[in-house]
Each structure stands twice: as C-alpha cells, then as structure tokens.
Amino acid sequence: MESVGSIILYTIVCLAIVIFSVLAVTTRKILRAATYLLFTLFAAAVVYFMLDYQFLGAVQIAVYAGGIVVLFVFAILLTSHPGSNSERLASKRRVLGLIASILMLGVCGYSLLSRCNLFAGKPEMEALDMQTVGTAMMGTGAGQYLLPFEAVSVLLLACIIGGIVVARKR
Amino acid sequence: MEIKAIYYLIPSLIMFCCGLYGFLTRRNMIAMLISLELMLNAVDMNFVIFNRFLFPEQLEGMMFTLFAIAIAAAETAVAIAIIINVYRSVNQVDVRTLNQMKF
Q1: What is the domain range of residue B76?
Q2: 3-state secondary structure of A87
Q3: Which residues 108-167 of A are in CB contact (within 8 Å) with B?
Q4: Is B56 inside any structural domain?
C-alpha cells in the first residue's frame, strides 16, 4: 500500500515523462527540444529517487541534466540560429516514423501487459548506503565492478583526447 | 492502490518510442542525438526498474545504469565534436546534405 503523496508524485512524474518526451521529438524549434529533454531527464531522476536509488538519481541530475544538456545547448547555439524553425517534415517520412514507433509501442506494450501479473508489488529493500555502492564499484569479487570502472576511466580519457582532436581548428 | 513495476515500465516504453520516432523523422543531427538520448534514458530506466522489483538485494541493474550514464556522456561529447567539425566544413548540420563521404 502506497501513501497518497507517492501516488500523486507518481502521477505527476508519469505525465511529465510522457508529455515532455512527445514534445521533445515533435517541436520544431531545436532549442525547445533540448529544454524538453532536460525536463524528461529530471522526471527520470525522480523515478530513481522513488525507487530508493538516491545515488543514481543524483548522478542522473549531475551528469545528464548538468553536463549533457549544457553540451547540447552549446552545440545548438553554435550551429543554428536560435528561434528559427526547422522545416516541415515530408509527410511520407513522418507517416513512416509514426508507423514504426506505434508498431513498437503495440508489440512491446502487449507483451508487457499480458505478463504484468508476473511482477508483484515493490519488495522491501534496506536503504542503500554509499559504502555498499563504493565497495561494489571498487572490489574485484563477484558482483563487484573494478574492471569496468577502470575501462570507463580509460574511455573518458580517450574521449577527451578525441574531442579535442576532432573539434580543434586546423 | 499499489504502484507496480508495469506502471513504471509503460512510461519508459513510451519514452523509447518517442525517441524512435524522432530518430527516424528528424533531419538535424543534434535533434537526432536528442532522440538517441531519450532512447538511452528509457533503457536505463528499465534496468533500474527490473533491478528494484525483481532482485532488490543485488546491485547489477544500478551498476549497469551508472556505467551507461558515463558512456552516454562520453558518446555525446564525441558526437557533438563531430557535429561541430561538420558544421565548420559544410556550414550546416542537415543529414540530407551530408553525402560527400558516400560512394
């Protein structure tokens, strides 16, 4: 049994995810699309908080909303005139995209809904403290992730160098 | 009323389908990248939801999402560097006009 507050919060977050993700792909101003993407990412962070993964929600806000969206805004302002509309889509292409996404929605939604009684309610979980996350990230045993952690750090280094090399002035 | 897993999975599915629609219909490279981010984020949400509802005492889904967020950030940075480079050489970011590397 959930409290009334969490049901209200869930409804708001659900509506925000649906509305803002639809708006992000249908608006014709590209800067607005980035803003709607930001709102969708915030709603996803609230979902993580509601599922008791506080660290993940904080990472989502810091990296996605703080880093990636700022990068998007910089790139948009560098490559297009703010306030200009993108041109109207050819209707054939739009119909094709609509058919593909509705087909996907139908197939996946049907298979989810026909098996939805497989999932019981939310099981209890003891609060996830930072020490558990830290040992899982830094250990080498079963269920611990030192190797991917180091691989990601090398990937980030490669990414910094690649970004500089690709985007520098010749 | 109880909030079940399905109530979280359906919004994430809708988010993924919006990303798919945007990726197929948009022409601007940055708009396509935004749609890609929507799809990635929907997948991240699915990892976390299944982790929380099926195996709450383990951390696999959460760790997958953490690494996926880091890799998505790296991928976006490189993609935006490429887009800015393309803009500098051909002065637009419309994918229909970028056919110089085609045979």
Answers
A1: 5-97
A2: coil
A3: 108-109, 112-113, 116, 119-125, 128, 132-133, 136-137, 143, 145, 148-149, 152, 155-156, 159-160, 162-164, 166-167
A4: yes
Residue A100 in domain:
no
Look at the alpha carbons of A127, A129, A133, A138 in this order and tell me if their dihedral is positive or negative. Answer: negative
Give the distance from residue A1's alpha carbon to the nearest chain B alpha carbon, in angstroms.
Answer: 5
- The model's pLDDT over A35-67, given as tens digits with 9 standing for 90+, comes to 999 999 999 999 999 988 999 999 999 998 888
How far is Cα B46 from Cα B61, in angstroms, rounded to an integer? 9
The reply to whether A72 falls in a domain is: yes
B63 interfaces chain A, CB cutoff of 8 Å: yes
- Classify residue A99: in a domain, yes or no: no
Q: How many domains does chain B have?
A: 1
Instruction: Enter the pTM of the model.
Output: 0.90
* In-domain check, residue B103: no
ipTM: 0.92
pLDDT in tens, B46-66: 999 999 888 888 888 899 999
Of A80, A94, A155, the CB nearest to B25: A94
Which residues span the domain enclosing A67?
Answer: 1-86
Query: Which of A26, A56, A86 is the last residue before a domain boundary?
Result: A86
